[in-house]
Amino acid sequence: MGEQKDRMLRGELYRDNDPELVADRERAQGLVDRFNGTGAEETGERDAVLRALLGKLGEGSWIMPRFQCDYGYLIEIGANSFLNYDAILLDCAPIKIGSDCSIGPRCQLLTALHPMEDHELRRQRWESAAPITIGNNVWFGGGVIVCAGVTIGDDVVVGAGSVVTRDLPSKVFAAGNPARVIREL
């Protein structure tokens, strides 16, 4: 493994134009293109492509096209989970989705981070990433955005259009921008 990929996986600043990372993204994009190009009746082909693309796809889980990701191999999805249309998972760090989750249409899970204070590093295209972890039996309404480094507990509901910028405990309903706990469930 090259230095930039190693740095990315450790959550350190890295350059995404590294040839190894470019090759990994091209491989993933080829599989994503195959997945998104399947017909409605080609569920077996979709499943096979997802199993080649993702780090883990639990039994009974499925994703609707269009689907987008950076690398694929950093995404783990538990059993019986569902990602609706137009999911975007920027997996520069691990994304773990538990079992029995329902992710609404146009949701985004974004692990990528860019330097805020060091303008020169940002100009030079340095970036880092922080993992996203989603517990079991979580439901996201449409258009939810989960930011880098967030952990969401079990049995959580996040209202449509919410932007989750910090951790959410188990058994709560959260909504808003930024998302906040509205009530316990």
TrEMBL record:
Tell me any Pfam family this protein matches: Mac
Q: Where is the chain membrane-spanning?
A: none
Which InterPro entries does this entry report, sorted A to Z? Hexapep, Hexapeptide_acetyltransf, Mac_dom, Trimer_LpxA-like_sf
Q: Which GO terms describe its molecular function?
A: acetyltransferase activity; O-acyltransferase activity
Keywords attached to this entry: Acyltransferase, Transferase
Superkingdom of origin organism: Bacteria
CDD domains in UniProt: LbH_MAT_GAT
Ranges for domain Maltose/galactoside acetyltransferase come to 5-59
Q: Which family does it belong to?
A: Belongs to the transferase hexapeptide repeat family.
Q: PANTHER family recorded for this chain?
A: ACETYLTRANSFERASE C18B11.09C-RELATED, SIALIC ACID SYNTHASE-RELATED
Its recorded name reads Maltose acetyltransferase
List the taxonomic lineage. Answer: Bacteria, Bacillati, Actinomycetota, Actinomycetes, Pseudonocardiales
